[in-house]
Amino acid sequence: MAMADAAARPATGLLRTLWLASPTLPVGGFSYSEGLEAAVDAGLVRDEHSAADWLTDQLHLGLARSDLAVVAQAIPAWQAHDLSRIAALNAWVLATRETQEFRLQTEQMGRSLLEWARSLGPLGDGVAEQLLAARLQPPTYPVAMACAAAASGAALADSLGGFAFGWAENMVQAAIKSVPLGQSAGQRMLARLAGEIPAAVQYALSLGDDQRQAFTPMLAILSARHETQYSRLFRS
């Protein structure tokens, strides 16, 4: 029985990681393009190749250095019940959003993840209770997702890979709708991003507090322009 329990734990962690990475998770990630729609409007992204290059750069220069690194540090903090550490990471996320759109996105998705966890009741592994006890005002998405990942029992690197892949799926869907592109092009882009994610995860794991950064000037300019873009599909 003990051997069966030990074998079941990794499988359970994998399944919960897949659940958290699913685009059907009701956190609203599908409604954001994170500046991609503005890049299309500006002519910087215009086809499959330029879209794939754009998202690959965003993965390594943006996500890996900021939100993915926060998740890497927040998961062990949640597991250790270190609420002061959690509060500091959450404050860093709020302080480093470069535009109003980006800040509203992380706040909305964080609140939605909390509501999702609350809706699960006893099936939620105490995620909602932990988020509420931390008194984050409001919980940001990477910190809230780290709480859910910490309760999953998955290995840290696997949780980060799931977080990054969930981001990649949403962004590829944004590219399909805004460029626009076909589903086959989207699958090729997702295959490329999947190949890049392990390196992004390892980089995020290597960063300390003084090495995290959220500095993507072109993305910030495009996001600010998107706030007043005449015609748009996405909220950011």
SSE layout and pairing:
Blueprint: H1 2-21, H2 36-41, H3 48-63, H4 67-79, H5 83-95, H6 100-120, H7 127-134, H8 141-150, H9 156-178, H10 183-206, H11 217-226
Helix pairs in contact: 1-9, 3-9, 3-10, 4-5, 4-8, 4-9, 4-10, 6-7, 6-8, 9-10
Give the DSSP E fraction (strand runs of 2 or more residues): under 5%
What is the H-and-E element order? HHHHHHHHHHH
User: How does the major sheet shape up?
Assistant: none
Radius of gyration: 17 Å
User: Helix fraction?
Assistant: 55-70%
Oligomer: single chain
Shape verdict: globular
Low-confidence segments, ≥5 residues, pLDDT <50?
1-8
Distance between the termini: 50 Å
* Classification by helices and strands: mainly alpha
Number of helices: 11
Number of strands: 0
Mean pLDDT: 93
Quick recap:
This protein is mostly helical.
Structural descriptors:
single chain, 236 residues, mainly alpha, 11 helices, globular, disordered N terminus
Describe this structure in words.
This protein has 236 residues and is an all-alpha fold. The termini are far apart. The chain has helices at residues 2-21, 36-41, 48-63, 67-79, 83-95, 100-120, 127-134, 141-150, 156-178, 183-206, 217-226. The radius of gyration is 17 Å and the shape is globular. 43% of the residues are buried. Residues 1-8 have low confidence and may be disordered. The chain contains 11 helices and no strands.
